[in-house]
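Section 4.2 – Deliverable D4.2 (structural model, holo form)

The reporting period included a commitment to supply a predicted holo structure for the target in complex with 4AD. Inputs used:
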Amino acid sequence: METSRPKIKQLLTEQPIDTEVTIKGWVRTKRGNKNVAFIAVNDGSTIHNIQAVVDMTNFSEEALKPVTTGACVGITGKLVRSQGQGQSVEILAEKIEVFGTADPETYPLQKKGHTLEFLREIAHLRPRTNTFGAVLRIRHHLAFAIHQFFNDRGFFYLHTPIITGSDAEGAGEMFRVTTLNIENPPKNPDGSINYAEDFFGKETNLTVSGQLEGELGALALGLIYTFGPTFRAENSNTPRHLAEFWMIEPEMAFYDINDNMDTAEALLKHVISYALEKCKDDLEFLNNMYDKELLNRLNLVANSNFERCTYTKAVEILENCGKKFEFKPAWGADLQKEHENYLVEHFGKPVIITDYPKDIKAFYMKQNDDGKTVRAMDILFPYVGEIIGGSQREENYDKLYNRVKEMGIHEESLWWYLETRKFGTCVHSGFGLGFERLVLFVTGMTNVRDAIPFPRTPKNAEF
Ligand code: 4AD
Ligand code: MG
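Output (C-alpha cells):
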C-alpha cells in the first residue's frame, strides 16, 4: 500500500532491522565495482540518503545501467545494520525498479556543488539538491508554526482577496488586473480608458497587502490573521525584494502598539524555536555548508529580549556614532539599510523602532499627539534588516479621513474602510511579517530568491 510505505526519514530513525522495506526516490549517487554497487537514494523526506547495497551476483550490469544520478527508482530489500561508515542502516537490494531515467549527458545536477546562481536557472530541478530540499522543508515547518502560534492564541485565519480595487500601502506599486484588450482598449470621450467595460467594471490590481480587509475581520472576530501572497511592482532588484511574496498579517481589536510589539516578538521567537527543534538536520547542514554563525544567530534571537527604541532616538544614535554612512542620517528621512544594520549591531539583538515621522509611513497609522509622528513599529533583524512592519491603526474617523485627503489618496476606493471608523470603531493594531525574509533569516541563504520555490523578480517569471 503506497500510502503506508515508510519514508526514508522514518527508516533512518526507527531502524526496523531485518524487515523487508521498499523505498522510492531519486538517485543521488551510484558507485562500486564488478562485485558490489552502492546506490544512495533520497526521497525528500529528509536531507539524509539511504544506501542500497547491490550484490552484483544477483543483478546484471545491464539492469543497473539506467540507475544513474537523477533517475527515479524503487528499491526493495532487507534493512540491515550498515557495515560501512557514514550510515547506520542500509538496504540489501533484492529488487530494483527504474521509474524514470535521467540521461547523464544532459541531467544538469551532477554530483559536484553548483552555485546558487546556477541553481536559480534550473529552479525546476533545484528542489532535488540538499540545499533546496533543506530550505523547502524549513519553509514548510515555519508556515506550520505560524498557523500553530495564532491558532493556539484564538486568532482566526481570514482569507483576504488577491484582486482589489484599492492600494493598501498607498505606494502605487501595483500590478494591473484586466481583461481589456490592451492593444485596443475601450475609450471614454476624453480619450482615457473606459474601465467600466473591464471585467470588474472598474480598475483592479493584485493586492500589496491584506491588511485593510484584515482590519474589517478584526473589528468583528477580534483576532485574525492573513497568510497569503502579495504583489509589488517595485523595480527593486535587491537580495531582499520579490515582486511576489507571502505575508502574514495579524490584526487585533483592542491591542495598542505595545500589545502589537509583544505579539510580534512572541511570534518570531516561537517560529524560530520551532525550527530549531524540528529542522535540526537541515539547519545543521546549512550551518556547516554556508554559514557557521547560523545556529548561533537563531539561538541568540530566540532567547533575546528585543530592544525597543523610538525613531527619534535611533536617529540620534546614528548621528552621534561617528560612523561615516553613505546616506547621512537625518530626522524625517527613511532609515537606510546601512542605518538599520548599524542599529542592530549597536544593540546586539533585534530592535523594534517605533514612532516614525508620519510623512514616511502609510495613511492608516495612528497619529501621535505631537502631530509629527505615527505609532508605527518596524522590527529590524540581524542579517536581513526589516522583517516586520506594523502599527497601531488610526481609529478616529476625522483624523483618518483628513490624512487620506492630505496624502491625495483616492478616497472613493476606501469608503468601506473609512466606514468602519463610523460604526463601532476601537483601538486596534496589526503588523505584516514578510515570509521570505523570515525564511531567509532562518536558512541563512543570502538572497531572497533562494527562500521561495519559484521567485518572481523584475524580468523574471520563469517556471
Ligand atoms: O512594511 P510593509 O510594506 O507593511 C505592510 O504591507 C503592512 N500592510 C503590514 C501590516 O501592518 N499589516 O511590509 C511588511 C513586510 C516587510 O517588513 C518585509 O518583511 C516584507 O513585508 N516585504 C517584502 N518581502 C519581500 N519582497 C518585498 N518586495 C517586500 N516588501 C515588503
Ligand atoms: Mg515596511
